[in-house]
Amino acid sequence: MTTRTQQIRHYLMCKPSHFTVSYTINPWMEPANPTDTAKAVEQWQKLYDLYVELGHTVELVEPGEGLPDMVYTANGGFLIDGTAYAPKFRFTERAGEEPLFIDWFRENGYHVVVPQETNEGEGDFLLAGDVILAGTGFRSTGESHREVGEVFGKPVVSLTLVDPRFYHLDTALAILDPVVEPGAEVGVAYLPSAFDEESQKTLATLFPNAIHVSDEDGAVFGLNSASDGKNVIISPRAVGFKKQLEERGYNAITVDLSELLLGGGGIKCCTLELRGASA
Ligand code: ARG
């Protein structure tokens, strides 16, 4: 079996102290259903503790009052080599998060690029080797794909999402191992039916050995996972995906974020990778 090597990561998280579901901007959010903020914090803390235990560095941004979705820091930006491409949220409900993330990046020494185009950060942009995979269809626009490519000077592969349950790219596709030898294939898992036909063809060509997950595992946000190249943190409900990962030599670790799923987010949504100049 393939031996996997862990890469140490630098993450940004935000405690869900103000988490609740008070509006609907994705099909998972139902304001009539009660939420339990204390439980959300407790579940989130387990993810934080696990990252630290695995040796990763985790930074925290102060949660903004009246911004219940700020816990999903993956949408707070997209960072490569110390440059932070800031978000411009699709819905006004989340626009208040923009200055808070920008301030945090600036205070922590990142070069901030304020976008012209609507984009939701690492929710829709994933770095696969030297290529940016970019999702559109629900949140980030096609124009933001051009903009992110210009900002980082990297090729962008646009992928169109078609199933409203999987409205961000990181709900439908996971990068398992971005560090590759020249010519080798990036480790990827995805749910084919979440993409339009053309994007499915693109993915099949780019990643012929990718893991295809079942709709069942996708629907419990199995793909909304965080991998360090060896350890892959996933939802305990994604039982089929767990097996697939183990067959490929990854160490699957489960963390239950059921409370945060009420807002339509999971493990990856709560995790933003800070790719610094020295990283
Ligand atoms: N309620 C949030 C929204 O709809 C959830 C964001 C999930 N984040 C993610 N990276 N998929 O915007």
UniProtKB/TrEMBL annotation:
GO terms for molecular function: hydrolase activity. The keyword Hydrolase applies. Gene3D superfamilies: L-arginine/glycine Amidinotransferase, Chain A. Keywords: Hydrolase. It comes from the Bacteria. SUPFAM superfamilies: Pentein (SSF55909). This is N-dimethylarginine dimethylaminohydrolase. It comes from Microbacterium mitrae.
